[in-house]
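Margin note from the TA: students keep mixing up input and output lines. Inputs are the sequences; the output is the structure of the whole complex. Example:
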Amino acid sequence: MKVRKPFVFINCAMSLDGKISTIERKQVRISSDEDLRRVDELRAESDAILVGMNTIAIDDPKLTIKSERLRRERLKRGLPENPIKIGIGNVNGMKLNSDFLNYGKIIVFTTENSNPEKIERLRKKADVHVLGKDRVNLNKMLRTLAGMGVKKLMIEGGGTVNFEFLKEGLVDEIYVTVAPRIFGGVNAPTLVDGEGFKLNEAIDLKLLGTENLHDLLVLRYEIKDSKKYI
Ligand SMILES: NC(=O)c1ccc[n+]([C@@H]2O[C@H](COP(=O)([O-])OP(=O)(O)OC[C@H]3O[C@@H](n4cnc5c(N)ncnc54)[C@H](OP(=O)(O)O)[C@@H]3O)[C@@H](O)[C@H]2O)c1
């Protein structure tokens, strides 16, 4: 039986030329304090936040809500202080003392390619689900999350994860902050990487709104044909 898919949205900051980091592929600050406050509000409205294994390895994001007011408001609404944090990918290289693994409730979705001993060690820090041989089946993953009460899932990159979710038709909206900088480089990660889409597979979007944050522009798009049930 099909279930209602959690509402899934991507939030990402990119340079004018569509790069989400430089050719060094390190963590870079692309947006402004004002934009990060907007991101904090999106986090506070979400039940869970997901990132890919490369982003965990490179950025080691805490993914917590920075504003005390927003955390208090969540508690008043009967929600945990912070959304659930979700990591996806092979766990073999995960550092158990990372910031990602040390704040709040954590769920990791991985595959049979991960080392079983590492999975057992990781289970002390996170709820680990093995959902697939080589790739995590994203539809099954969202069904699992829906069963845990996740209604709104925020995806915070990187480009490979964004592609995987878009390819499966699982994304409902995209927020992208365009910063007035140019990074260039064919090897710099972009908003959507992976194998890419052919012209007849390209994803059509509808612009829902724009917001000017001084030099930055925030664009909000709806994906026209996203799945509603999985
Ligand atoms: N500007 C921004 O807003 C922003 C936000 C986030 C990240 N970034 C940047 O983006 C870059 C990282 O992006 P990235 O594209 O290299 O990596 P990524 O999307 O963070 O992670 C990719 C990895 O996630 C795992 N994965 C994704 N889909 C999967 C699936 N269906 N099943 C199993 N595993 C899956 C795979 O891990 P395994 O290979 O281990 O299986 C894959 O290699 C960094 O430079 C980071 O700083 C920028």
